[in-house]
Design goal:
The chain is mainly alpha-helical. It is 74% helix and 0% strand. InterPro entries: DedA_domain, VTT_dom.
């Protein structure tokens, strides 16, 4: 009935809870290739735990903190150990993409880190150029990463709630005029 990655995601959430979400988002934040699609795991987790705030909050926090930890590890590895994550086969970001990220950071500065983390497909790219070409401290980088990741995961949360409630149920939360508009 489910796609294999969704079934695997649900099994991980059932067995390990928010820890599974944390690990997958930390790996995604560290630019490591997708073990499981993080978006799929998150939405499946929201569906599995339900839509009550008490149940969803640990999943939300695990995703945001996991992504921030993963990106911070890359930032520190590049800054302190002169690591080149793009030289690893498991990192799906090439030099040409990092050049574009560097130009983005040069133009917009630290807010670009938050903005890039809020956009699927660019998440985490600015960890390497920020560490290489700036005097940004690790805590400031982590704060910008956290803000962008919270926006990204917040959007995923809205999708997860919509899936959990069904499209009509989600429109009903907006008010009766929206629920009857379709």
């Amino acid at each position: 009935m489910f796609d294999p990655s969704v079934a695997t995601a649900l099994a991980l959430v059932e067995s390990y809870g928010a820890v599974a979400v944390f690990v997958v988002f930390a790996l995604e934040g560290a630019l490591v290739g997708k073990v499981l699609p993080a978006r799929t795991l998150f939405v499946a987790s929201v569906v599995a735990v339900g839509v009550e705030a008490v149940a969803v909050l640990p999943v939300f926090a695990a995703a945001v903190i996991g992504a921030t930890v993963g990106q911070s590890v890359v930032f520190v590895a590049v800054r302190r150990f002169d690591a080149d994550p793009t030289s690893l086969a498991v990192v799906p970001v090439g030099k040409e993409r990092l050049d574009g990220a560097s130009r983005w950071f040069d133009r917009w500065g630290l807010p670009a880190v938050a903005a890039s983390n809020a956009v699927p497909g660019t998440r985490g790219w600015l960890a390497v150029p920020t560490a290489n070409a700036s005097s940004v401290s690790a805590p400031r980088f982590a704060a910008a990463s956290l803000v962008g990741s919270a926006a990204y995961v917040g959007a995923l949360l809205a999708v997860g709630i919509a899936v959990a409630l069904g499209f009509g149920g989600a429109l009903g939360l907006l008010g009766p005029e929206w629920a009857t508009a379709l």
